[in-house]
Amino acid sequence: MRIGLTGGIGSGKSTVSAMLARCGAAIVDTDAIGRRLTAAGGAAMPAVRQAFGDAIIGADGALDREAMRARAFSDPSAKQRLEALLHPLIGAEALREAAVSTSRVLVFDVPLLAESPHWRARVNRILVVDCRHATQIERVAQRAGWTHDAAERVIASQASRAARRTIADAVIFNDGIDLATLEATVSGLWSLWQPPAQDPVEQ
Question: N or C: which end of the chain has fewer CB within 10 A?
Answer without folding.
Answer: C
